[in-house]
Design goal:
- Helices cover 52% and strands 0% of the residues.
- By secondary structure, it is an all-alpha fold.
- It has one domain (12-72).
- It starts with 11 loop residues before the first helix and ends in a 12-residue tail after the last helix.
- 0% of the residues are buried.
């Protein structure tokens, strides 16, 4: 079997977390990505559900505060509702 190199760009903190988790289960991050790639091919797509993360209550409240502050400062635009 010949090998090929795959370069992946990701957030440095995410890479560190991937390395730590892989090491904790006795793998390198490269081996972990090989496991993922094999499962991706076997499932003909992601081997797990890909969904938007649900924000925590704190994150949601902070986002609502940010939006409220922006609107209070007059930085908004009105939009008409789109109906089918």
């Amino acid at each position: 079997m010949t090998t090929a190199t795959l370069n992946i760009r990701m957030d440095a903190d995410l890479k560190q977390s991937v390395d730590e988790v892989a090491k904790s289960i006795g793998l390198t991050s490269a081996a972990a990505f090989n496991v993922f790639a094999r499962q991706f091919v076997a499932h003909k797509g992601f081997p797990f559900a890909v969904v938007a993360p649900v924000p925590s209550e704190r994150e949601f409240a902070e986002e609502m505060d940010r939006i409220y502050s922006t609107m209070s400062n007059g930085q908004y635009s009105a939009h008409d509702l789109i109906e089918d």
